[in-house]
Amino acid sequence: MLFRFSRSQALAVRALPVVALLATAVFAPLPFSVAQPGMTANVLGENKGDPVITISGAATRETTGQLRMTTIEATGPDADVRLTDVIDGWFDTDRAVMPRDSVYPTGDNVKEIEEHNAEEMRKSQNTATEAALNYLGKDSGDIKVTLKLADVGGPSAGLLFSLGIVDKLNGDGSGGNLTGGRTIAGTGTIDADGTVGPVGGVALKTQAAKRDGATVFLVPKAECSDAKSELPKGLRLIPVTTLKATVDSLRALEKGTGSVPSC
Questions:
Q1: What range(s) does the Lon proteolytic domain occupy (predicted)?
Q2: Domain 36-74+108-255, CATH among 3.30.230.10, 3.30.460.80, 3.40.50.720, 1.10.3720.10
Q3: Using one digit for the tens of pLDDT, what is the confidence trace for 85-99?
Q4: Using one digit for the tens of pLDDT, what is the confidence trace for 187-243?
């Protein structure tokens, strides 16, 4: 049996698949995570009641100012992110939409990802210690450094850990502090030879830094443009490539002499 539709009926029938597709797009989970500025922690101080950096086997010095590592918080790997969440994230400067694989590149479930991130943090702490002691020319066999930071995973605090160790052992090398009494925040991985690497999420981390009182932000040089995209007013960017160059920049900033690089 054949049926003949009027024009309006035909248009309505054709529209049904489109409406169904739109409804599916709105309500179906998407392969994204929505991130926002996370916590920061002063590596020269305490975190949840415990010193972040503990050193034995060498004299340490009293420090002033703060060196704050920064984080982002993202929806979990098993969270349902919908089209409406993605659209809201695109228009909200306090949030960012990121491919889930870029946030959680390893592991198929929450437990695997947590274990991976914890292992990355342990490796980062060991490498940060090695980089700092290498920079200072100190024997790692004589000095024990313990780093403790609760509920944080991944390698992006490496640079700040190294700077904290250098400040506690040597300061600016002439009796002063690396911070110059300021609150300095930053991010970046670090290799044993002192090379600083990019980390991602820097635009959100600058917001976390400003929120928690920082006036200076150390950013891997390769991520300068990302850091500038949503830079909070009053926060100064200093691009960094190595631990030595970072210490030199902080000395120049502290003493008001020499050139301090900018993005």
A1: 153-237
A2: 3.30.230.10
A3: 666 655 666 777 777
A4: 999 999 999 999 989 999 999 999 999 999 999 999 999 999 989 999 999 999 999
CB atoms within 10 A of CB 129: 23
State how far the Cα of 89 lies from the Cα of 100, in Å rounded to an integer.
14
Whether residue 243 contacts residue 190, with contact meaning beta carbons closer than 8 Å, is answered with yes
Token pair recorded at residue 129: 């210690």
Cα dihedral angle (55, 59, 64, 67), rounded to 10 degrees?
A: -30
Beta strands in the chain (DSSP E): 32-42, 46-47, 50-51, 53-56, 66-74, 96-99, 144-147, 183-186, 189-190, 196-197, 216-220, 236-240
**CA-wise closest residue to 135 among 245, 257, 44:** 245
**Chain CA centroid to CA 166, Å:** 21
- Report pTM: 0.82
Amino acid at 83: L
- Residue 13 CB partners (closer than 8 Å, separation 6+): 5
**What does the buried/exposed string (b/e) look like for 152-170 if buried means 16 or more CB atoms within 10 Å of the residue's CB?**
bbbbbbbbbbbbbbbbbbb
Domain ranges of the chain: 36-74+108-255
